[in-house]
């Protein structure tokens, strides 16, 4: 599911259970992500650890290139895996956001004065039902990454994905979409991704809202002593 995804839900699982957990959760827990590079000087080091002299932009871009570029190239080395599967395409920041590389990650001016940090708000993205482009997903991912370290640094190491955590949903949506692009899987909007990540079936949620509304209508009748028009149904399950 995580190494050879064929559906968007597989990408969500990867983004939520592996990448998000590795970056922001308990670092002592086992994780299937490849954490080493071929660089002999750092082969024994976890690439997810931030270097002492590394600024946040460089750190975010390095993680991006490792998980969406290098790890895909490593996977492609196993020819047997791709005999009957579509070969994925490595994605590097230099290709999706070349201006970010040239300007060391500061190619857009993002300000976030909201009480709850939001990459969407920082980048001026307002429609959660709009499907972002690869470049937009990349910007959201990098911005969410930075906001976690700038606004919620004390929580890092203890974070667990929560569908009601806007910044977490933005990060997971963007990461899942970038991986989906790499594997030729259709991209999804934040609204759709949130439903998948939070195990929400939107049709059921809508039905619950309708039933709740009908209950309120009957409750009003009770308060008004309108018992003639009161409806009561017993549901057995």
TrEMBL record:
A single MF term (Gene Ontology):
ubiquitin-like modifier activating enzyme activity
The reply to whether DNA-binding figures as a keyword in the UniProt entry is no
The chain positions of domain Ubiquitin-activating enzyme SCCH read: 98-194
Q: Name one Pfam family in it.
A: UBA_E1_SCCH
UniProt keyword annotations, A-Z: ATP-binding, Nucleotide-binding, Ubl conjugation pathway
Q: What domain of life is recorded for the organism?
A: Eukaryota
What InterPro entries has UniProt attached to this entry? Ub_act_enz_dom_a_sf, UBA_E1_SCCH, Ubiquitin-activating_enz
Pathway(s): Protein modification
> Which family, according to UniProt?
Belongs to the ubiquitin-activating E1 family.
Q: Mind telling me what this protein is named? A: Ubiquitin-activating enzyme SCCH domain-containing protein
Which source organism? Aegilops tauschii subsp. strangulata (Goatgrass)
């Amino acid at each position: 599911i995580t190494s050879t995804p064929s559906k968007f839900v597989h990408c969500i699982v990867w983004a939520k259970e592996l990448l998000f957990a590795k970056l922001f959760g308990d670092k002592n827990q086992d994780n299937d992500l490849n954490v080493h590079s071929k660089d002999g000087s750092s082969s024994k080091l976890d690439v997810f650890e931030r270097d002492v002299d590394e600024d946040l932009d460089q750190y975010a871009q390095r993680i991006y290139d490792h998980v969406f570029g290098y790890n895909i190239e490593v996977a492609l080395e196993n020819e047997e895996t791709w005999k009957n599967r579509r070969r994925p395409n490595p994605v590097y920041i230099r290709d999706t956001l070349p201006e970010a590389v040239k300007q060391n990650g500061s190619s857009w001016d993002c300000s976030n004065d909201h009480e709850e940090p939001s990459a969407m708000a920082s980048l001026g993205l307002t429609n959660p039902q709009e499907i972002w482009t690869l470049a937009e997903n990349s910007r959201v991912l990098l911005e969410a990454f930075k906001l976690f370290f700038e606004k919620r640094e004390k929580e890092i190491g203890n974070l667990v994905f929560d569908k009601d955590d806007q910044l977490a949903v933005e990060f997971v949506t963007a990461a899942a979409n970038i991986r989906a692009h790499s594997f030729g899987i259709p991209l999804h909007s934040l609204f759709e991704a949130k439903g998948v990540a939070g195990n929400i079936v939107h049709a059921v949620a809508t039905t619950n809202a309708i039933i709740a509304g009908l209950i309120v209508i009957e409750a009003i009748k009770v308060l008004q002593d309108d018992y003639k028009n009161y409806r009561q149904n017993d549901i057995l399950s």
